[in-house]
């Protein structure tokens, strides 16, 4: 497999990988549990106007916090990034911006929605430039969970399971984000303010995005890395802690049940060996 080591010196690559792994491994509980809990406290304090919105909803603080929580996923992926994977992720980033621009301009495929808070620099003053930082983890964590749960999955089984987890994560994310005012729909739906068309849109966009992932990565190499890398799915833990608690705080109980179901999946998997000490 042609790796990124052809684009940088092998020694430099190994040092970067080793440093990332050491930092994440030494701070697993802080990154995966403590950090999202602090984030929940800050976001809810901002919602209750106990903290100025310039702090609680600071776009650069939000992006920075997300980058910290996603660091286990990044550290897990770095050794797998060959040219095919990098091209695939580049195509996925373009698709992410493109589908969001179409959504904001036309209302398709997610329904007419708009952002309620600033999420960093905006592309064409319409969608956040940092959108892949938020979108990629949903897709990649779903893909990793599919590889973890399914035994030697076929293309179709892996695709269907990944898509199902993507939809489940959005069933958790969107109600919490609406409650915080991150975004909302012109015609709110019955699912905690989220319209059904949003999930039809996710079926469409998620299918395209997952197809890109299927082509971009060597599935056996990813599965082998997942079995050897104890923190690879810690970002999924962060996501479930953060959005599960936010939904619980506002009484969105269906998203909480979905989050608990995914927590149960992790707890019963061979991957789970989380050391809280």
UniProtKB/TrEMBL annotation:
Mind listing the UniProt keywords for this protein, alphabetically? Membrane, Transmembrane, Transmembrane helix
Give the InterPro entries listed for this entry: BABR_hydratase, CruF, CruF-like
* Signal peptide location: none
Does DNA damage count among this protein's keywords?
no
Listed transmembrane segments: 29-48, 60-81, 88-113, 133-150, 159-185, 197-217
Q: What is this protein called?
A: Carotenoid biosynthesis protein
């Amino acid at each position: 497999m042609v790796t990124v080591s052809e684009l940088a010196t092998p020694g430099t690559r190994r040092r970067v990988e080793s440093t990332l792994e050491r930092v994440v491994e030494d701070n697993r509980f802080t990154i995966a549990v403590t950090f999202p809990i602090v984030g929940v406290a800050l976001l809810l304090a901002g919602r209750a106007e106990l903290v100025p919105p310039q702090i609680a909803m600071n776009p650069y603080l939000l992006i920075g916090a997300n980058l910290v929580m996603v660091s286990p996923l990044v550290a897990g992926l770095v050794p797998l990034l060959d040219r095919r994977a990098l091209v695939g992720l580049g195509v996925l980033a373009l698709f992410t911006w493109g589908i969001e621009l179409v959504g904001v301009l036309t209302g398709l495929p997610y329904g007419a929605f708009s952002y309620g808070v600033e999420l960093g620099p905006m592309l064409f003053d319409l969608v956040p430039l940092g959108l892949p930082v938020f979108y990629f983890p949903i897709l990649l964590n779903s893909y990793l969970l599919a590889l973890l749960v399914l035994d030697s999955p076929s293309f179709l089984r892996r695709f269907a399971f990944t898509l199902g987890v993507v939809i489940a994560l959005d069933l958790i994310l969107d109600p919490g984000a609406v409650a915080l005012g991150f975004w909302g729909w012109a015609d709110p739906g019955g699912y905690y303010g989220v319209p059904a068309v949003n999930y039809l849109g996710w079926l469409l966009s998620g299918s395209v995005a997952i197809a890109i992932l299927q082509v971009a990565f060597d599935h056996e190499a990813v599965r082998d890395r997942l079995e050897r890398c104890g923190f690879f799915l810690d970002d999924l833990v962060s996501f479930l802690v953060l959005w599960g608690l936010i939904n619980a705080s506002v009484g969105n109980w269906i998203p909480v049940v979905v989050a608990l179901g995914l927590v149960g999946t992790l707890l019963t998997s061979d991957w789970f060996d989380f050391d809280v000490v």
